[in-house]
Design a protein that fits this description.
Elements lengths: L7 E2 L4 E5 L4 E6 L1 H7 L2 E5 L6 E2 L4 E7 L3 E5 L4 E6 L1 H5 L3 H4 L8 E5 L9 H9 L1
Length: about 120
């Protein structure tokens, strides 16, 4: 599996893409989507809510289990992916494109995030 080089990754298996205006897009990795199995429900943080790096902010339910969703950064949620709420399977079929989960205005620079190569090594071992 190939992780996009322009993203940063958490050890909880979320990815982060920071735009120039300070708004980051958050999703779960292909590795996590494959481990979860078919996602059937997404409980995402609401627009306007605060999220804190490393803390839970929602959950994903699959045919196998329920997994907590952790925010890789702190900030305020500016948008939630309505498409994923309507069709949670996008998390599996398009984890790095249409399956993104939410956008957040970052209040502090993310800390211990991994590069694509570091994340690949982390998930390989």
């Amino acid at each position: 599996m190939s992780n996009p080089q322009n993203l940063r990754f958490s050890k909880e298996h979320e990815w982060l893409s920071v735009a120039e205006d300070g708004v980051a897009t958050v999703g779960i990795t292909e590795f996590a989507a494959n481990a979860l199995g078919d996602v059937v429900y997404a409980d995402l943080p609401g627009t306007g809510s605060a999220v804190t790096a490393g803390e839970t902010c929602g959950e994903l339910e699959s045919t196998k289990s329920v997994s907590e969703l952790y925010s890789p950064v702190s900030g305020e949620v500016t948008e939630v992916n309505e498409d994923v709420q309507n069709d949670p399977s996008l998390v599996n079929s398009e984890p790095f494109e249409g399956g993104w989960l939410f956008k957040v205005r970052v209040s502090e620079e993310p800390g211990e995030l991994l590069s694509a190569d570091e994340y690949a090594a982390f998930t390989a071992g």
